[in-house]
Design brief:
- It is a single chain.
- The chain has 331 residues and is an alpha+beta fold.
- It contains eight helices and eight strands; from the N terminus they run αααβαββββααβαββα.
- An eight-stranded antiparallel sheet has the order 1-2-3-4-8-7-5-6, sandwiched between helices.
- Strand 7 and strand 8 form a beta hairpin.
- The model has no long low-confidence stretch (mean pLDDT 83).
């Protein structure tokens, strides 16, 4: 976990600790049992991979030393692959249980224990190329300021069934905020706002995949930072000024692999749709948020509670920024 960014009130810490008191022992038992299962699999597969590598190396190179080298490489590959699988199951269960306890005390939103967003939904945003796969890392939903809202950490992979890759540079990760705007349900058309410095592949999505044309807002400073597609009418001066609050939450470095200081990251993407506002802020792939420790480190509530509370506060900041926009201007 990354370090807590702000101090947690003692009363909140105590309340969350009470919520976790009956949960952590069970999580530790489940983690231990899962690791034991993977350990048995490791012993079986590593032995098989090592033996196969010795035979192959001896046969191809005629060298026992070559076989030993291949054995080491094969065994290490199996260990890396299976250790990743060993981590994934208990990691997701652990983080969900801890997040439910922390959010139950610190937030008015509810954690979705099995989050899912259909890939077809993203086609309606007018933003993206064809989305081939959606990974919802976590999702919270509820009501805020009288509106139905949701905030998620998501990963998107692009391409068709025949041209599809899960390499890190073939996908994008975001914090996504959704705000329902029922008063705009009858509105015609969409408004798509994308950073002007986005890559060509990204910026071509609205035009090539959705047939939207770029339109200037007439605000030279705003148009220098963003490219607008579709209907620019909702982007009133107050709405354009409100983008500063969205930008203040941006934390993803340009390469998308690490965090930078808030406000220094890649700018958000915004879609104003009939009945809904969607804000996608690029997210660092390895930001360390909401991460329980590896399975060989015991779950320490005094470490996890402040870290998860700080990460939740960061996530809440994205929602607060989006709600600060003059939503009435859209109607």
């Amino acid at each position: 976990p990354r370090a807590a960014a702000a101090a947690l009130k003692p009363a909140d810490h105590a309340a969350i600790l009470a919520r976790l008191a009956s949960v952590l022992p069970g999580l530790e038992r489940d983690r231990a049992a899962h690791v034991e299962r993977i350990d048995r699999v490791l012993k079986r597969y590593v032995s098989g991979a090592a033996l196969a590598a010795i035979v192959m190396g001896w046969g191809l190179a005629g060298s026992f030393v070559g076989g030993l080298a291949l054995m080491g490489i094969a065994a290490l590959s199996v260990v890396i692959l299976l250790l990743g699988k060993a981590e994934d199951g208990p990691r997701m269960t652990t983080r969900t249980e801890i997040l439910i306890a922390v959010a139950g005390q610190m937030s008015d939103l509810i954690v979705d224990p099995e989050p899912d967003i259909p890939r077809e939904w993203f086609a309606g945003l007018g933003l993206l190329q064809r989305v081939r796969k959606v990974i919802v890392d976590l999702r919270l939903t509820g009501q805020r300021d009288g509106r139905v809202v949701g905030v998620s950490r998501i990963g998107l992979m692009f391409g068709t069934d025949n041209r599809y890759s899960e390499k890190h540079d073939k996908g994008l990760t975001f914090v996504m905020v959704q705000i329902d705007l029922p008063e705009t349900a009858a509105r015609q058309g969409v408004t798509v706002v994308m950073p002007a410095d986005a890559s060509w592949n990204v910026k071509s999505g609205p035009r090539l995949s959705h047939g939207l044309r770029s339109v200037p807002t007439g605000d030279k400073s705003f148009d220098a930072l963003y490219t607008v597609y579709g209907d620019a009418v909702p982007l009133t001066p107050a709405m354009r000024a409100g983008f500063a609050n969205l930008e203040a939450q941006a934390r993803s470095a340009k390469h998308g692999l690490a965090e930078v200081a808030p406000g220094q990251g890649r700018r958000p993407w915004v879609a104003i749709l009939p009945g809904q506002l969607v804000v996608l802020t690029p997210l660092s792939m390895f930001d360390g948020a909401f991460e329980p420790p590896p399975f060989w480190v015991p779950l320490d509530p005094d470490t996890l509670i402040p870290a998860f509370a700080a990460d939740l506060a960061v996530l809440d900041g994205y929602l607060t920024a989006a709600l600060s926009l003059p939503l009435g201007d859209i109607a």
